[in-house]
Amino acid sequence: MGFSRIPIGHGVGLRPRHYGRMLDERPPVDWVEAISENFMAPGGRPLAVLEKVRSEVPVALHGVSLSIGSVDALAPSYLQRLATLAARIEPALVSDHLCWGSHGGRYVHDLLPLPYTEESLAHVVGRVRVVQDTLRRQILLENISSYVAFQDSTMTEWEFLSEVAGQADCGILLDINNVYVSARNHGFDPIAYLDGIPGGRIGQLHLAGHCDKGRYLLDSHDAAVPDAVWDLYREALRRFGPIPTLVEWDDNVPELDQLVVQSRTAAAIEHEMAIPKAVNA
Amino acid sequence: MTLAETQELFYRLVTRGPDVDPSAVAGCFLGSPDLDAAERVGIYADMYLWRLVDGLREDFPKLAALLGDRAFLALCRDYVAADPSDDPDLGRLGRRLAPFLRARPNLARPDLPALAALEWARAEVFFAAPAAPVTSTAFSAVGDDLPAARLSLIPALRVLRLDHDVVTLWRQLEQGQLPHAPTPGQQGVVVWRTGYDVYHTVVDADEASALASAAADRPLAEVCLSFARRPDPAASAFAALGSWAAEGWIASVRSPEGCPCPLLGAGAHIASS
To answer: Would the CB atoms of A109 and B55 count as touching at under 8 Å?
Structure first.
Protein backbone atom coordinates (compact mmCIF):
# COMPACT_ATOMS: atom_id res chain seq x y z
CA MET A 1 0.00 0.00 0.00
CA GLY A 2 2.78 2.48 0.83
CA PHE A 3 2.60 5.72 2.68
CA SER A 4 1.72 9.18 1.38
CA ARG A 5 2.98 12.24 3.20
CA ILE A 6 0.41 14.99 3.77
CA PRO A 7 2.03 18.43 3.35
CA ILE A 8 0.48 20.41 6.19
CA GLY A 9 3.46 22.55 7.17
CA HIS A 10 4.58 23.43 10.67
CA GLY A 11 2.50 23.13 13.81
CA VAL A 12 2.49 23.25 17.59
CA GLY A 13 1.00 21.07 20.31
CA LEU A 14 -2.40 22.12 21.62
CA ARG A 15 -1.96 22.61 25.36
CA PRO A 16 -4.45 23.77 28.06
CA ARG A 17 -2.49 26.95 28.77
CA HIS A 18 -3.31 28.16 25.25
CA TYR A 19 -7.00 27.20 25.15
CA GLY A 20 -8.16 30.77 25.76
CA ARG A 21 -6.26 32.21 22.83
CA MET A 22 -7.13 29.25 20.64
CA LEU A 23 -10.81 29.95 21.30
CA ASP A 24 -10.51 33.69 20.77
CA GLU A 25 -8.13 33.81 17.82
CA ARG A 26 -7.34 31.85 14.74
CA PRO A 27 -4.32 29.72 15.67
CA PRO A 28 -1.22 31.40 14.18
CA VAL A 29 0.15 28.06 12.98
CA ASP A 30 -0.33 25.74 10.01
CA TRP A 31 -1.76 22.92 12.13
CA VAL A 32 -1.95 21.67 15.70
CA GLU A 33 -1.39 18.33 17.35
CA ALA A 34 -3.71 17.22 20.14
CA ILE A 35 -3.00 14.50 22.70
CA SER A 36 -5.78 12.05 21.84
CA GLU A 37 -6.52 10.95 25.41
CA ASN A 38 -7.17 14.54 26.51
CA PHE A 39 -10.12 14.79 24.16
CA MET A 40 -11.80 11.40 24.47
CA ALA A 41 -14.28 12.61 27.09
CA PRO A 42 -17.69 13.38 25.62
CA GLY A 43 -17.74 17.06 26.51
CA GLY A 44 -16.18 20.04 28.23
CA ARG A 45 -13.97 22.90 27.24
CA PRO A 46 -11.05 20.88 25.79
CA LEU A 47 -13.25 19.21 23.19
CA ALA A 48 -14.90 22.52 22.33
CA VAL A 49 -11.47 24.09 21.82
CA LEU A 50 -10.35 21.22 19.62
CA GLU A 51 -13.47 21.39 17.45
CA LYS A 52 -13.05 25.14 17.05
CA VAL A 53 -9.39 24.76 16.12
CA ARG A 54 -10.23 21.94 13.72
CA SER A 55 -12.65 24.23 11.91
CA GLU A 56 -9.71 26.49 11.08
CA VAL A 57 -6.56 24.39 10.68
CA PRO A 58 -5.69 20.70 10.26
CA VAL A 59 -5.37 18.64 13.43
CA ALA A 60 -3.18 15.63 14.14
CA LEU A 61 -4.20 13.24 16.92
CA HIS A 62 -1.24 11.97 18.91
CA GLY A 63 -1.87 9.23 21.48
CA VAL A 64 0.15 8.12 24.47
CA SER A 65 -1.82 5.10 25.69
CA LEU A 66 -2.27 2.76 22.74
CA SER A 67 0.45 0.57 24.24
CA ILE A 68 1.07 -1.03 20.88
CA GLY A 69 3.91 -3.21 22.16
CA SER A 70 2.22 -4.52 25.30
CA VAL A 71 1.46 -8.21 25.62
CA ASP A 72 -1.90 -7.14 27.06
CA ALA A 73 -4.77 -7.42 24.61
CA LEU A 74 -5.54 -4.19 22.79
CA ALA A 75 -8.19 -2.39 24.83
CA PRO A 76 -11.39 -2.40 22.73
CA SER A 77 -12.92 0.49 24.65
CA TYR A 78 -9.83 2.60 24.09
CA LEU A 79 -9.79 1.83 20.38
CA GLN A 80 -13.47 2.65 20.15
CA ARG A 81 -12.98 5.98 21.89
CA LEU A 82 -10.09 6.78 19.55
CA ALA A 83 -12.19 5.83 16.53
CA THR A 84 -15.05 8.01 17.77
CA LEU A 85 -12.72 10.96 18.28
CA ALA A 86 -11.13 10.46 14.87
CA ALA A 87 -14.56 10.35 13.22
CA ARG A 88 -15.51 13.56 15.00
CA ILE A 89 -12.30 15.51 14.32
CA GLU A 90 -11.29 14.01 10.95
CA PRO A 91 -7.60 14.46 11.74
CA ALA A 92 -4.92 14.76 9.09
CA LEU A 93 -2.77 12.28 11.01
CA VAL A 94 -3.21 9.76 13.82
CA SER A 95 -0.14 8.64 15.71
CA ASP A 96 1.10 6.96 18.87
CA HIS A 97 4.40 5.59 20.14
CA LEU A 98 6.43 2.49 19.41
CA CYS A 99 6.48 1.33 22.99
CA TRP A 100 4.37 -0.29 25.67
CA GLY A 101 2.80 1.12 28.81
CA SER A 102 0.42 -1.40 30.32
CA HIS A 103 0.81 -4.78 31.95
CA GLY A 104 -1.93 -7.01 33.30
CA GLY A 105 -4.47 -4.27 32.69
CA ARG A 106 -2.44 -1.77 34.73
CA TYR A 107 -1.12 1.40 33.12
CA VAL A 108 2.16 3.03 34.04
CA HIS A 109 1.36 6.11 31.92
CA ASP A 110 4.85 6.09 30.51
CA LEU A 111 6.44 5.11 27.22
CA LEU A 112 8.49 2.01 27.95
CA PRO A 113 10.94 0.62 25.39
CA LEU A 114 10.69 -2.79 23.79
CA PRO A 115 13.43 -5.33 23.25
CA TYR A 116 14.15 -5.21 19.53
CA THR A 117 13.65 -8.87 18.70
CA GLU A 118 11.84 -10.89 16.06
CA GLU A 119 9.20 -11.77 18.67
CA SER A 120 8.55 -8.09 19.43
CA LEU A 121 8.48 -7.27 15.75
CA ALA A 122 5.85 -9.89 14.90
CA HIS A 123 3.82 -8.86 17.94
CA VAL A 124 3.81 -5.15 17.11
CA VAL A 125 3.19 -5.64 13.40
CA GLY A 126 0.10 -7.74 14.08
CA ARG A 127 -1.30 -5.18 16.47
CA VAL A 128 -0.67 -2.23 14.18
CA ARG A 129 -2.67 -4.02 11.51
CA VAL A 130 -5.57 -4.47 13.93
CA VAL A 131 -5.49 -0.81 14.91
CA GLN A 132 -5.37 0.34 11.30
CA ASP A 133 -8.23 -1.98 10.38
CA THR A 134 -10.28 -0.65 13.29
CA LEU A 135 -9.58 3.00 12.50
CA ARG A 136 -9.73 2.36 8.74
CA ARG A 137 -6.64 4.46 8.21
CA GLN A 138 -2.90 4.28 8.49
CA ILE A 139 -1.32 5.37 11.72
CA LEU A 140 2.15 6.71 12.43
CA LEU A 141 4.40 5.29 15.11
CA GLU A 142 6.91 7.49 16.91
CA ASN A 143 10.34 6.53 18.17
CA ILE A 144 10.59 7.19 21.89
CA SER A 145 13.38 8.50 24.07
CA SER A 146 14.77 5.68 26.16
CA TYR A 147 17.11 5.21 29.06
CA VAL A 148 17.57 1.46 29.01
CA ALA A 149 18.18 -1.21 26.37
CA PHE A 150 17.85 -4.97 26.48
CA GLN A 151 20.26 -7.86 26.46
CA ASP A 152 17.98 -9.74 24.07
CA SER A 153 17.77 -7.10 21.34
CA THR A 154 18.99 -8.35 17.97
CA MET A 155 18.31 -5.17 15.97
CA THR A 156 19.01 -1.50 16.32
CA GLU A 157 16.07 0.75 17.11
CA TRP A 158 16.03 2.19 13.60
CA GLU A 159 16.09 -1.27 12.06
CA PHE A 160 13.17 -2.29 14.27
CA LEU A 161 11.18 0.88 13.53
CA SER A 162 11.78 0.49 9.80
CA GLU A 163 10.72 -3.16 9.84
CA VAL A 164 7.54 -2.37 11.78
CA ALA A 165 6.60 0.40 9.36
CA GLY A 166 7.30 -1.71 6.31
CA GLN A 167 5.64 -4.92 7.46
CA ALA A 168 2.61 -3.25 9.05
CA ASP A 169 2.37 -0.66 6.28
CA CYS A 170 2.19 2.27 8.65
CA GLY A 171 3.91 5.63 8.79
CA ILE A 172 6.73 6.88 10.97
CA LEU A 173 6.60 9.90 13.22
CA LEU A 174 10.28 10.61 13.62
CA ASP A 175 11.02 12.53 16.80
CA ILE A 176 14.34 14.26 16.18
CA ASN A 177 14.78 15.11 19.84
CA ASN A 178 14.17 11.50 20.81
CA VAL A 179 16.78 10.32 18.32
CA TYR A 180 19.25 12.75 19.86
CA VAL A 181 18.38 11.86 23.47
CA SER A 182 18.53 8.11 22.90
CA ALA A 183 21.75 8.42 20.92
CA ARG A 184 23.38 10.16 23.87
CA ASN A 185 21.91 7.73 26.39
CA HIS A 186 22.93 4.60 24.50
CA GLY A 187 26.01 5.81 22.70
CA PHE A 188 24.92 5.36 19.09
CA ASP A 189 25.38 7.75 16.17
CA PRO A 190 22.20 9.78 15.48
CA ILE A 191 23.24 10.20 11.86
CA ALA A 192 23.34 6.43 11.46
CA TYR A 193 19.79 6.39 12.84
CA LEU A 194 18.62 8.88 10.19
CA ASP A 195 20.44 6.98 7.47
CA GLY A 196 18.66 3.79 8.51
CA ILE A 197 15.12 5.15 8.30
CA PRO A 198 13.09 4.84 5.07
CA GLY A 199 12.29 8.48 4.32
CA GLY A 200 9.19 7.63 2.34
CA ARG A 201 7.55 6.26 5.48
CA ILE A 202 8.05 9.44 7.51
CA GLY A 203 4.83 11.41 7.78
CA GLN A 204 5.75 13.80 10.56
CA LEU A 205 8.67 15.09 12.58
CA HIS A 206 8.74 16.14 16.22
CA LEU A 207 11.05 18.67 17.79
CA ALA A 208 11.37 19.35 21.51
CA GLY A 209 13.72 20.29 24.29
CA HIS A 210 15.40 18.01 26.77
CA CYS A 211 17.21 18.23 30.05
CA ASP A 212 20.83 17.27 30.74
CA LYS A 213 20.89 15.23 33.96
CA GLY A 214 24.64 14.75 33.86
CA ARG A 215 24.96 11.06 33.16
CA TYR A 216 21.98 10.97 30.82
CA LEU A 217 19.59 13.21 28.90
CA LEU A 218 15.96 13.36 30.03
CA ASP A 219 13.26 13.87 27.42
CA SER A 220 11.59 16.60 29.45
CA HIS A 221 9.80 18.73 26.82
CA ASP A 222 10.25 21.68 29.13
CA ALA A 223 12.50 23.97 27.15
CA ALA A 224 13.19 25.40 23.71
CA VAL A 225 14.62 23.16 21.02
CA PRO A 226 18.39 23.12 21.62
CA ASP A 227 20.96 23.78 18.91
CA ALA A 228 22.04 20.16 18.68
CA VAL A 229 18.46 19.11 17.88
CA TRP A 230 18.10 21.88 15.29
CA ASP A 231 21.30 20.60 13.69
CA LEU A 232 19.92 17.07 13.57
CA TYR A 233 16.68 18.45 12.13
CA ARG A 234 18.70 19.95 9.28
CA GLU A 235 20.27 16.57 8.67
CA ALA A 236 16.83 14.96 8.56
CA LEU A 237 15.52 17.54 6.10
CA ARG A 238 18.60 17.09 3.95
CA ARG A 239 17.82 13.39 3.70
CA PHE A 240 14.05 13.27 3.63
CA GLY A 241 12.85 16.58 2.17
CA PRO A 242 10.11 18.79 3.65
CA ILE A 243 8.09 16.99 6.30
CA PRO A 244 5.25 18.29 8.51
CA THR A 245 7.02 19.31 11.70
CA LEU A 246 5.67 19.93 15.17
CA VAL A 247 7.28 21.56 18.18
CA GLU A 248 6.30 19.90 21.47
CA TRP A 249 6.45 21.72 24.80
CA ASP A 250 4.66 20.02 27.70
CA ASP A 251 6.18 21.30 30.94
CA ASN A 252 6.81 24.93 31.89
CA VAL A 253 4.73 25.67 28.81
CA PRO A 254 5.53 29.19 27.54
CA GLU A 255 3.21 31.75 26.02
CA LEU A 256 1.79 30.65 22.68
CA ASP A 257 3.87 33.29 20.91
CA GLN A 258 7.12 31.70 22.04
CA LEU A 259 5.94 28.30 20.87
CA VAL A 260 4.95 29.76 17.51
CA VAL A 261 8.41 31.31 17.15
CA GLN A 262 9.88 27.83 17.52
CA SER A 263 7.54 26.50 14.87
CA ARG A 264 8.39 29.37 12.51
CA THR A 265 12.07 28.68 13.08
CA ALA A 266 11.50 25.13 11.85
CA ALA A 267 9.72 26.51 8.78
CA ALA A 268 12.55 28.97 8.14
CA ILE A 269 15.15 26.23 8.34
CA GLU A 270 13.20 24.17 5.86
CA HIS A 271 12.90 27.17 3.55
CA GLU A 272 16.56 28.16 3.81
CA MET A 273 17.71 24.73 2.88
CA ALA A 274 15.81 24.98 -0.40
CA ILE A 275 15.18 21.31 -0.21
CA PRO A 276 14.29 19.38 -3.34
CA LYS A 277 11.01 17.47 -3.39
CA ALA A 278 10.59 14.56 -1.03
CA VAL A 279 13.05 11.77 -1.40
CA ASN A 280 11.72 8.31 -0.81
CA ALA A 281 14.00 5.54 0.28
CA MET B 1 13.46 -13.95 27.97
CA THR B 2 10.14 -13.80 26.19
CA LEU B 3 8.49 -10.46 25.58
CA ALA B 4 5.90 -11.28 28.24
CA GLU B 5 8.59 -12.14 30.79
CA THR B 6 10.48 -8.97 29.98
CA GLN B 7 7.41 -6.80 30.44
CA GLU B 8 6.46 -8.56 33.66
CA LEU B 9 9.91 -7.84 35.12
CA PHE B 10 10.03 -4.27 33.80
CA TYR B 11 6.56 -3.50 35.18
CA ARG B 12 7.46 -4.78 38.63
CA LEU B 13 10.66 -2.76 38.65
CA VAL B 14 8.98 0.43 37.47
CA THR B 15 6.21 0.13 40.04
CA ARG B 16 8.69 -1.01 42.71
CA GLY B 17 6.80 -4.22 43.21
CA PRO B 18 7.82 -6.70 45.90
CA ASP B 19 10.11 -9.69 45.57
CA VAL B 20 12.07 -8.66 42.48
CA ASP B 21 15.33 -10.59 42.13
CA PRO B 22 18.08 -7.96 41.71
CA SER B 23 20.11 -10.32 39.54
CA ALA B 24 17.27 -10.37 37.04
CA VAL B 25 18.00 -6.74 36.19
CA ALA B 26 21.47 -7.45 34.86
CA GLY B 27 20.14 -10.47 32.99
CA CYS B 28 17.55 -8.44 31.15
CA PHE B 29 18.83 -4.89 30.78
CA LEU B 30 22.02 -3.37 29.44
CA GLY B 31 24.07 -0.98 31.50
CA SER B 32 27.09 1.13 30.72
CA PRO B 33 30.17 2.12 32.75
CA ASP B 34 28.67 5.46 33.74
CA LEU B 35 25.09 4.28 34.27
CA ASP B 36 24.42 0.69 35.24
CA ALA B 37 21.29 -1.24 34.34
CA ALA B 38 19.63 -0.79 37.73
CA GLU B 39 20.15 2.98 37.62
CA ARG B 40 18.67 3.11 34.15
CA VAL B 41 15.57 1.21 35.20
CA GLY B 42 15.43 3.45 38.27
CA ILE B 43 14.90 6.47 36.01
CA TYR B 44 11.59 4.94 34.93
CA ALA B 45 10.61 4.01 38.48
CA ASP B 46 11.16 7.59 39.65
CA MET B 47 9.21 9.04 36.74
CA TYR B 48 6.35 6.59 37.29
CA LEU B 49 5.44 7.91 40.72
CA TRP B 50 5.98 11.58 39.86
CA ARG B 51 3.81 11.31 36.77
CA LEU B 52 0.95 9.81 38.75
CA VAL B 53 1.35 12.34 41.55
CA ASP B 54 1.21 15.17 39.02
CA GLY B 55 -1.92 13.66 37.51
CA LEU B 56 -3.62 13.38 40.89
CA ARG B 57 -2.54 16.89 41.90
CA GLU B 58 -4.29 18.21 38.81
CA ASP B 59 -7.61 16.71 39.90
CA PHE B 60 -7.17 17.27 43.65
CA PRO B 61 -5.48 20.66 43.99
CA LYS B 62 -7.23 21.57 47.26
CA LEU B 63 -6.47 18.21 48.84
CA ALA B 64 -2.83 18.60 47.81
CA ALA B 65 -2.69 22.12 49.23
CA LEU B 66 -4.32 21.05 52.47
CA LEU B 67 -1.99 18.09 52.99
CA GLY B 68 1.22 19.71 51.80
CA ASP B 69 3.69 18.18 49.36
CA ARG B 70 5.13 15.47 51.59
CA ALA B 71 1.83 14.11 52.90
CA PHE B 72 0.21 14.30 49.46
CA LEU B 73 3.11 12.36 47.95
CA ALA B 74 2.79 9.73 50.67
CA LEU B 75 -0.96 9.48 50.06
CA CYS B 76 -0.46 9.12 46.31
CA ARG B 77 2.24 6.49 46.77
CA ASP B 78 -0.01 4.40 49.00
CA TYR B 79 -3.03 4.90 46.74
CA VAL B 80 -1.38 3.81 43.49
CA ALA B 81 0.30 0.90 45.27
CA ALA B 82 -3.08 -0.29 46.54
CA ASP B 83 -5.04 0.59 43.40
CA PRO B 84 -2.82 0.94 40.33
CA SER B 85 -4.15 2.75 37.30
CA ASP B 86 -6.43 0.54 35.21
CA ASP B 87 -7.50 3.10 32.63
CA PRO B 88 -5.55 4.38 29.61
CA ASP B 89 -6.64 7.87 30.63
CA LEU B 90 -4.50 9.21 33.48
CA GLY B 91 -7.35 11.54 34.25
CA ARG B 92 -9.38 8.58 35.57
CA LEU B 93 -6.76 7.60 38.16
CA GLY B 94 -8.37 9.57 40.97
CA ARG B 95 -11.84 8.12 40.74
CA ARG B 96 -11.37 5.84 43.76
CA LEU B 97 -9.26 8.19 45.89
CA ALA B 98 -12.18 9.33 48.08
CA PRO B 99 -13.21 5.75 49.04
CA PHE B 100 -9.53 4.93 49.58
CA LEU B 101 -9.24 7.83 52.01
CA ARG B 102 -12.45 6.80 53.75
CA ALA B 103 -11.00 3.36 54.44
CA ARG B 104 -7.63 4.73 55.55
CA PRO B 105 -6.99 4.79 59.30
CA ASN B 106 -5.47 7.73 61.17
CA LEU B 107 -6.28 10.45 58.68
CA ALA B 108 -4.69 13.82 59.36
CA ARG B 109 -8.20 15.29 59.11
CA PRO B 110 -11.51 13.40 59.04
CA ASP B 111 -12.87 15.65 56.26
CA LEU B 112 -10.27 14.57 53.70
CA PRO B 113 -12.54 11.94 52.07
CA ALA B 114 -15.34 14.47 51.66
CA LEU B 115 -12.98 17.03 50.15
CA ALA B 116 -11.65 14.40 47.75
CA ALA B 117 -15.20 13.46 46.77
CA LEU B 118 -16.02 17.09 46.03
CA GLU B 119 -12.90 17.61 43.95
CA TRP B 120 -13.44 14.39 42.01
CA ALA B 121 -17.02 15.37 41.23
CA ARG B 122 -15.74 18.71 39.92
CA ALA B 123 -13.18 16.90 37.75
CA GLU B 124 -15.81 14.54 36.40
CA VAL B 125 -18.37 17.13 35.40
CA PHE B 126 -15.66 19.19 33.69
CA PHE B 127 -15.44 16.50 31.01
CA ALA B 128 -19.06 15.28 31.01
CA ALA B 129 -21.13 15.31 27.86
CA PRO B 130 -22.96 18.55 27.12
CA ALA B 131 -26.75 18.68 27.14
CA ALA B 132 -29.09 21.54 26.42
CA PRO B 133 -31.18 22.15 29.57
CA VAL B 134 -34.93 22.64 29.46
CA THR B 135 -36.79 25.54 31.05
CA SER B 136 -39.66 25.24 33.49
CA THR B 137 -42.12 25.27 30.57
CA ALA B 138 -41.13 21.66 29.95
CA PHE B 139 -43.19 20.72 33.02
CA SER B 140 -46.28 22.41 31.63
CA ALA B 141 -45.91 20.49 28.40
CA VAL B 142 -46.31 17.21 30.28
CA GLY B 143 -49.77 18.25 31.44
CA ASP B 144 -51.74 15.76 33.48
CA ASP B 145 -48.93 13.20 33.38
CA LEU B 146 -46.68 15.33 35.57
CA PRO B 147 -46.72 13.11 38.70
CA ALA B 148 -45.55 10.12 36.68
CA ALA B 149 -43.11 12.05 34.55
CA ARG B 150 -39.40 11.40 34.98
CA LEU B 151 -36.51 13.81 34.79
CA SER B 152 -33.25 13.40 32.95
CA LEU B 153 -30.66 15.46 34.73
CA ILE B 154 -27.80 16.86 32.67
CA PRO B 155 -24.78 14.52 32.45
CA ALA B 156 -22.57 17.25 33.94
CA LEU B 157 -24.23 17.09 37.38
CA ARG B 158 -23.37 15.15 40.50
CA VAL B 159 -25.24 14.98 43.82
CA LEU B 160 -23.05 14.38 46.85
CA ARG B 161 -24.02 13.64 50.42
CA LEU B 162 -20.95 14.43 52.48
CA ASP B 163 -20.21 14.02 56.18
CA HIS B 164 -18.30 17.29 56.68
CA ASP B 165 -18.61 20.88 55.59
CA VAL B 166 -16.03 20.88 52.84
CA VAL B 167 -17.71 23.57 50.76
CA THR B 168 -16.48 26.21 53.20
CA LEU B 169 -13.13 24.45 53.37
CA TRP B 170 -12.89 24.42 49.57
CA ARG B 171 -13.63 28.15 49.42
CA GLN B 172 -11.02 28.93 52.07
CA LEU B 173 -8.40 26.97 50.16
CA GLU B 174 -9.43 28.62 46.90
CA GLN B 175 -8.97 32.04 48.48
CA GLY B 176 -5.69 31.14 50.14
CA GLN B 177 -7.15 31.45 53.63
CA LEU B 178 -6.25 29.28 56.58
CA PRO B 179 -8.50 26.23 56.55
CA HIS B 180 -10.97 25.88 59.40
CA ALA B 181 -10.98 22.88 61.69
CA PRO B 182 -12.95 19.90 60.38
CA THR B 183 -16.67 20.54 60.74
CA PRO B 184 -18.67 17.32 60.89
CA GLY B 185 -22.26 17.24 59.74
CA GLN B 186 -24.28 15.96 56.81
CA GLN B 187 -23.99 18.21 53.80
CA GLY B 188 -25.79 17.87 50.47
CA VAL B 189 -23.79 19.31 47.60
CA VAL B 190 -24.63 19.64 43.93
CA VAL B 191 -21.75 19.93 41.47
CA TRP B 192 -22.50 20.92 37.90
CA ARG B 193 -21.12 22.54 34.79
CA THR B 194 -22.65 25.42 32.90
CA GLY B 195 -20.89 26.10 29.63
CA TYR B 196 -17.24 25.43 30.44
CA ASP B 197 -17.41 26.50 34.07
CA VAL B 198 -17.84 24.15 37.03
CA TYR B 199 -19.87 25.16 40.09
CA HIS B 200 -20.97 23.59 43.35
CA THR B 201 -23.54 24.58 45.91
CA VAL B 202 -24.94 23.31 49.19
CA VAL B 203 -28.50 21.99 49.17
CA ASP B 204 -30.69 20.77 52.00
CA ALA B 205 -30.64 17.07 52.76
CA ASP B 206 -34.18 16.53 51.44
CA GLU B 207 -33.38 18.33 48.21
CA ALA B 208 -30.25 16.20 47.80
CA SER B 209 -32.45 13.14 48.28
CA ALA B 210 -34.91 14.44 45.69
CA LEU B 211 -32.11 15.02 43.18
CA ALA B 212 -30.67 11.59 43.86
CA SER B 213 -34.13 10.13 43.33
CA ALA B 214 -34.49 12.00 40.05
CA ALA B 215 -31.04 10.82 38.99
CA ALA B 216 -32.19 7.27 39.74
CA ASP B 217 -35.02 7.79 37.22
CA ARG B 218 -37.83 7.71 39.77
CA PRO B 219 -41.16 9.34 38.84
CA LEU B 220 -41.70 12.93 39.91
CA ALA B 221 -44.29 11.84 42.47
CA GLU B 222 -41.60 9.87 44.26
CA VAL B 223 -38.99 12.59 43.78
CA CYS B 224 -41.26 15.10 45.46
CA LEU B 225 -41.95 12.85 48.44
CA SER B 226 -38.46 13.82 49.61
CA PHE B 227 -40.00 17.14 50.71
CA ALA B 228 -42.78 15.49 52.75
CA ARG B 229 -41.36 16.70 56.09
CA ARG B 230 -41.53 20.37 55.16
CA PRO B 231 -44.45 22.56 56.34
CA ASP B 232 -45.73 22.97 52.79
CA PRO B 233 -44.35 19.98 50.89
CA ALA B 234 -46.00 20.73 47.56
CA ALA B 235 -44.82 24.33 47.47
CA SER B 236 -41.33 23.22 48.45
CA ALA B 237 -41.29 20.59 45.72
CA PHE B 238 -42.52 23.04 43.10
CA ALA B 239 -39.93 25.60 44.15
CA ALA B 240 -37.15 23.05 44.00
CA LEU B 241 -38.14 21.80 40.56
CA GLY B 242 -38.33 25.36 39.33
CA SER B 243 -34.89 26.18 40.67
CA TRP B 244 -33.41 23.04 39.12
CA ALA B 245 -34.76 24.12 35.76
CA ALA B 246 -33.51 27.67 36.27
CA GLU B 247 -30.00 26.40 37.10
CA GLY B 248 -29.98 24.30 33.95
CA TRP B 249 -29.82 20.97 35.76
CA ILE B 250 -32.67 19.29 33.84
CA ALA B 251 -32.07 17.91 30.37
CA SER B 252 -35.59 16.65 29.75
CA VAL B 253 -38.96 15.92 31.37
CA ARG B 254 -40.31 12.64 30.07
CA SER B 255 -44.02 11.90 30.08
CA PRO B 256 -45.00 8.30 30.89
CA GLU B 257 -48.18 6.53 31.97
CA GLY B 258 -49.80 8.35 34.88
CA CYS B 259 -49.58 7.52 38.55
CA PRO B 260 -51.12 9.36 41.49
CA CYS B 261 -49.04 11.82 43.44
CA PRO B 262 -50.00 13.05 46.91
CA LEU B 263 -48.07 16.29 46.51
CA LEU B 264 -48.39 17.22 42.85
CA GLY B 265 -51.78 17.87 41.41
CA ALA B 266 -52.41 17.18 37.76
CA GLY B 267 -51.07 19.98 35.56
CA ALA B 268 -49.29 21.62 38.48
CA HIS B 269 -47.40 24.79 37.68
CA ILE B 270 -43.69 24.84 38.39
CA ALA B 271 -42.49 28.31 39.16
CA SER B 272 -39.28 29.68 37.76
CA SER B 273 -36.85 31.06 40.28
So the answer is: yes
